[in-house]
């Protein structure tokens, strides 16, 4: 077998890397290895459409099965890379040895689990992959009292799905507001009101003492202040840790909780690259090294790497963006939240149609749009072009956001 | 019960792809499942990326409905020219009435 690209992990980053390599004219073999037994799929629906039963497994595929065949991408499902011999540039699964010219780590991240007593009880779930989602979906159908540990994106999306299905839902958040890591406080409050409106109970500043069960099956959640909640289903959504085992064994430099890569997704070892949730990369907008978990980041890094490996001109460095769907709210975020920014509200929050803009001086650094896709799409471009905005025009929802531009540093 | 219908995609280069689509799924899903080139659908049908743009010339509006507000806003930002018949294929539901319809794929999605 000729050496080629061996891609470890076949989610958004890995599958996109395979597709983009072929699109960029990569002639050598491409092997895409997934530890899961499913064709590569979109992860965002797992907490929403898939969990609600609106989308079936074969409706959330990243690509149809024929794609891999047509593109000569050798897809190995249900396999893990057990060994890498860097001197010989060979990676092995338990059944095959694959010589590589490029080893691409797209190993993703795993859900953090809790270590409080009772965490292993039946009924305590995490949500990261299709297998998790299938179990959660099945168990949610019969559940009455759902407790969500962690008021982050996944927790709140599952809370919304469960509330819409008529479950009694309680969200426990250790901090004093929702999604504090990624949202300005105005949006945290907005989402809180949204969930309260749909009957979700949210408890802030609480920590968990234990899960209590009966016959191995979850019955109660005990809080550190002694309170006790009935629960037949718990979802733990308290973040993730990057899957760095292979990187560690290869002696790669790790930083910010991920595999350190440069702008071209090169790790500290020649011929080894990392993309997606497992990669930590200098972020040109923040000036820090960040591990970013998003579809956009996975896709952009995959495309960047494919261009680099095929000697093509590198695509421009884009703006980070992300979205969440909760009830009838589509919240789209562009840029990265920053402290000390001036905040402009564009439109009426009560109408479920507004954007919140963060400005540093006159410069737009991030935008959070609720059901305003045009603002979001414009903001992505304006942030990457370092545009300066006229405040009055930017705050006027009847003026397109691009109409508020005073000047752009780049085009 | 007739649970699948036939729809056709025509690429910008004039190549035609006739595919079977289950009722209740979306036009985008039919394209992805059958590896129709030129439909990217980067966001997987969440109506956030405008990379599954199609032109619906000759398809009756009563069959596929009208673009929603968010979809319209996204179409404004699509890579290819927005025409009167532009839609995002992830927002088009497969119904029995869509049988035989032909959808054109624009030259670019990025």
How does this model look, in words?
The complex is a heterodimer of chains A (411) and B (110). Chain A is α/β, with parallel strands linked by helices and 411 residues long. Helices cover 23% and strands 31% of the residues of chain A. Chain A has helices at residues 12-23, 49-52, 65-70, 130-142, 153-164, 185-197, 245-249, 295-309, 373-384, 391-394; strands at 4-8, 30-33, 73-76, 83-85, 90-92, 97-105, 109-111, 124-125, 145-149, 168-173, 201-204, 208-214, 217-223, 228-230, 233-236, 240-242, 254-255, 258-260, 272-274, 279-282, 289-290, 321-326, 329-335, 342-348, 353-360, 363-370, 388-389, 405-407. In chain A, the strands form seven sheets. In chain A, strands 1, 2, 3, 4, 5, 6 and 19 form a seven-stranded mixed sheet that branches. The longest helix of chain A has 15 residues, at 295-309. Chain B is an alpha+beta fold. In chain B, strand 1 and strand 2 form a beta hairpin. Chain A binds chain B through residues 42, 44-45, 49, 55, 58-64, 66-67, 70, 295, 299, 323, 325, 330, 332, 371-374, 376-378, and chain B through 25-26, 29, 32-35, 42-48, 50, 69-70, 73-74, 76-77.
Main attributes of the structure:
heterodimer, A: 411 residues, alpha/beta, FAD/NAD(P)-binding domain, Enolase-like, domain 1, 3 domains, 7-stranded mixed sheet, 5-stranded parallel sheet, 10 helices, 28 strands, 23% helix, B: 110 residues, alpha+beta, Ubiquitin-like (UB roll), 3-stranded mixed sheet, two-stranded antiparallel sheet, 5 strands, 16% helix, 21% strand
């Amino acid at each position: 077998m000729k050496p080629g690209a061996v891609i470890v992990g076949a989610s958004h980053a890995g599958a996109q890397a395979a597709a983009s390599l072929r699109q960029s004219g990569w002639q050598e073999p491409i092997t895409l290895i997934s530890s899961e037994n499913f064709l590569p799929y979109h992860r965002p629906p797992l907490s929403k459409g898939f969990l609600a039963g609106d989308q079936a497994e074969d409706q959330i595929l990243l690509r149809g099965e024929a794609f891999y065949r047509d593109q000569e991408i050798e897809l190995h499902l249900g396999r893990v890379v057990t060994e890498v011999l860097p001197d010989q540039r060979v990676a092995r699964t338990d059944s095959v040895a694959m010589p590589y010219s490029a080893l691409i780590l797209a190993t993703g991240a795993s859900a953090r689990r809790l270590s409080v007593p009772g965490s292993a009880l039946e009924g305590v779930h995490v949500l990261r992959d299709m297998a998790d989602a299938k179990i959660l979906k099945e168990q949610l159908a019969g559940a009455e009292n759902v407790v969500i540990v962690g008021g982050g994106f996944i927790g709140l999306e599952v809370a919304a799905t469960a509330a819409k299905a008529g479950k009694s839902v309680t969200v426990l958040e250790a901090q004093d507001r929702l999604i504090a890591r990624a949202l300005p406080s105005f949006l945290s409050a907005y989402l809180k009101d949204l969930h309260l409106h749909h009957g979700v109970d949210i408890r802030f500043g609480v920590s968990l003492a234990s899960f209590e069960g009966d016959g191995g099956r979850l019955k109660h959640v005990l809080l550190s202040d002694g309170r006790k909640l009935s629960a037949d289903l718990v979802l733990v959504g308290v973040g993730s840790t990057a899957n760095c085992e292979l990187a560690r064994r290869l002696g790669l430099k790790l930083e910010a909780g991920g595999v350190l890569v440069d702008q071209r997704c090169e790790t500290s070892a020649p011929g080894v690259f990392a993309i997606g949730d497992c990669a930590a990369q200098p972020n040109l907008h923040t000036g820090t090294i960040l591990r970013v978990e998003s579809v956009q980041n996975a896709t952009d890094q995959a495309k960047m790497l494919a261009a680099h490996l095929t000697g093509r001109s590198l695509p421009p460095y884009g703006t980070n963006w992300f979205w969440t769907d909760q009830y009838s709210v589509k919240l789209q975020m562009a840029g990265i939240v920053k402290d000390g920014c001036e905040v402009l509200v564009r439109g009426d929050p009560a109408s479920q149609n507004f954007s919140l803009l963060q400005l540093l001086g006159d410069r737009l650094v991030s935008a959070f749009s609720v059901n305003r896709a045009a603002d979001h799409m414009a903001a992505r471009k304006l942030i990457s072009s370092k545009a300066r905005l006229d405040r009055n025009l930017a705050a006027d929802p009847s003026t397109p956001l691009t109409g508020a531009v005073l000047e752009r540093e780049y085009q | 019960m007739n649970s699948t219908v036939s729809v056709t995609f025509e690429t910008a280069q004039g190549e035609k792809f006739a595919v079977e689509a289950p009722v209740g799924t979306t036009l985008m899903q039919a394209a992805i499942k059958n590896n129709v080139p030129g439909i990217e659908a980067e966001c997987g049908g969440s109506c956030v990326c405008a990379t599954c743009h199609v032109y619906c010339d000759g398809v009756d509006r009563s069959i596929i409905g009208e673009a929603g507000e968010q979809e319209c806003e996204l179409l404004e930002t699509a890579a290819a020219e927005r025409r009167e018949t532009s839609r995002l294929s992830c927002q088009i539901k497969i119904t029995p009435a869509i049988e035989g319809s032909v959808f054109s794929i624009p030259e670019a999605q990025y």
